[in-house]
Amino acid sequence: MSATQTTQIPAAMVLAAGYGKRMRPLTEQTPKPLLPVAGKPLIEHALERLAAIGVRRVVINLGHLGEKIRARLGDGERWGLDIRYSVEEQPLETAGGILKALPLLGNAPFLVVNGDVWCDFDLRSWLRQPLPDDCPGRLLMVPNPSHNPAGDFGIDNGLLSGTAMPRYTFSGISWLRPQLLTEYPRVRPCFGLGEIFVHHQARLQAELFEGDWCDVGTPERLRRLDERLRGSVA
To answer: Which of 9, 20, 149, 168 could disulfide-link 141, Cβ–Cβ 3.0 to 4.6 Å?
Structure first.
């Protein structure tokens, strides 16, 4: 199994097209990625981290109240980014949204970050460890939060496993080859990444991260994260 000797800074996709139903009433007028955390929209924290590791092209998918995201972020110049938008006229779920955006992402492996996730994992470590040529992607896993106690997958010798124990939760952060989606036998307009991960699990790399991570899925989680981050910079 060989790996590319040098890794160019990849493009990245930030998933931001969800309705944020569990965040209502906060998301009735504001898309979830624009909800403020420690003084700035959640998605801007992700953009700053991507810019800090040298990412220059970012694709953001837009759905519910998406034009507000475009109006806030613009072309990304303030972060040194080239932001491009993939507009979804109807919900496509995670895999469908990425598949639609592939023409904007290019043919090389790209990072994917959920727009409603806070995480201080240093993605530079991944750039120093290129994907092997026969590996379709790498997933960041985290210890199970209280809202997902059963976890999603295990890790077996660095690879994703549906049977290995203990099980961990997918963080919403991954590094994927386009072929992971294009060569999946059940490609369709609207479908999720979970089934693709199950299909490719024996070939997908998986890494456990036990640092600071939060899936901002409810108003209470948003409040706790905001208070914690404000306290850390006070």
So the answer is: 168
Long-range interactions of 183-192: CB distance < 8 A, separation 24+:
184/95, 187/99, 188/96, 189/92, 189/96, 189/100, 190/90, 190/91, 190/92, 190/93, 190/96, 191/93, 191/95, 191/96, 192/93, 192/94, 192/95, 192/96
Give me the count of residues in the chain: 234
Question: 10 Å Cβ neighbour count for 33?
Answer: 31
Q: pTM higher than 0.90, yes or no? A: yes
Question: Chunked in runs of 10, what are the mean pLDDT values of the chain (234 residues)?
Answer: 54 90 84 91 94 96 94 96 96 94 95 93 91 95 94 96 96 96 90 94 95 90 89 57
Tell me, yes or no, whether 109 lies in a domain.
yes
pLDDT of residue 1: 36
Q: What residues contact residue 185 under an 8 Å CB cut-off, 6+ apart?
A: 199
Give pLDDT, residue 7.
62
Residue 230 confidence (pLDDT): 83
Q: Which two tokens stand for residue 128?
A: 């120093």
* Domain extent for 177: 12-233
Distance CA 51, CA 54 (A): 5
CATH number at residue 90: 3.90.550.10
Q: Are 33 and 116 in contact (CB under 8 A)?
A: yes
